[in-house]
From TrEMBL:
This is Aldo/keto reductase. The lineage of its organism: Bacteria, Bacillati, Bacillota, Bacilli, Bacillales. PANTHER family: 2,5-DIKETO-D-GLUCONIC ACID REDUCTASE. Residues 30-266 form the NADP-dependent oxidoreductase domain. It comes from the Bacteria.
Length: 279
């Protein structure tokens, strides 16, 4: 991990940037387009969106304008979207994927995820993702917010293993059991809400570690995720914060730092519980 273009390798051999930009709760409009463009201009290559965010068209506009203005090619970027809970039968998943592709203005996606496990229908959705993957329309397929038991159930009926599981992950929710299962089964974890929606930015221990390294608390948390082997997609629309969130490759947390941050775990969520959240 040397810079924002540094990549990990998914189980199918596809290379994915460790760090990317998330756009959850960023509405369509100029702010969104400029955030995507600012991220790409400043070295980001991974942009993560979802159907339910209602902003795929703006993300697509930011991507197209960035390609024109920077000279980058489509294949230089890694674009993720997700199918929502209302489209988890086979046909609806195929349809949802094509709508996302059209809104983004792309010919393929680098990664497509089932957004939440919901109820048993995610098994139908997975079959659709497998078929889209075989057709070459998606370079990698995965899930989001899946617990160990969801992954175990999916393994019983799947032909292709999920390559990635995107989950809430931060110092108050370290997901140790899920991390262990993912490592044993070749599933890459990716953290959403790595900063716990800003709730950790004034934590005394994290401030102490940040001061020691001459960094901001947000940068320490992002670095902790990366050193834990977890890809990360912090969200911001402000260019200076986007730049700061990406400035995490010039320092390293010690083993003591890592253990101290791990010890902050309280199994505390800021998002919904995957076992109870359906729509």
């Amino acid at each position: 991990m040397e810079n924002l273009q540094s990549k990990l390798i998914l189980s199918n051999g596809v290379k994915m940037p460790w760090l990317g930009l998330g756009v959850f709760k960023v509405e369509e409009g100029p702010e969104l387009v400029q955030a995507v463009k600012a991220a790409i201009k400043n070295g980001y290559r991974l942009i993560d969106t979802a159907a339910i965010y209602g902003n795929e068209a703006g993300v697509g506009q930011g991507i197209q304008e960035s390609i024109r203005e920077t000279g980058l090619k489509r294949e230089d970027l890694f674009i993720t979207s997700k199918v929502w809970n209302d489209g988890l039968n086979y046909e609806d998943t195929i349809k949802a994927f094509r709508v996302s592709l059209e809104k983004l203005g792309l010919d393929y996606l680098d990664l497509y995820l089932i957004h939440w496990p919901g109820v048993e229908q995610y098994k139908e959705a997975w079959k659709a993702l497998e078929d889209l993957y075989k057709q070459g329309l998606i370079r990698a397929i995965g899930v989001s917010n899946f617990q160990v038991h969801h992954l175990e159930d999916l393994a019983k009926i799947s032909e292709i293993k999920p390559m990635l599981n995107q989950v809430e992950h931060h110092p108050k929710l370290t997901q140790q059991d899920l991390r262990k299962y993912a490592k044993e089964n070749g599933i890459q974890l990716q953290a959403w809400s790595p900063l716990m929606q800003g709730q950790l930015l004034d934590h005394s221990l994290l401030e102490e570690i940040a001061e020691k390294h001459g960094k901001a608390v947000a940068q320490v948390i992002i670095r902790w995720n990366l050193q834990s082997g977890i890809a990360t997609i912090p969200k911001s629309t402000k260019e200076h914060r986007i730049v700061a969130n990406g400035d995490v490759f010039d320092f390293q947390l010690s083993a003591e730092d890592m253990e101290a941050i791990d010890a902050l775990n309280e199994n505390l969520r800021v998002g919904p519980d995957p076992d109870t959240f359906n729509f």
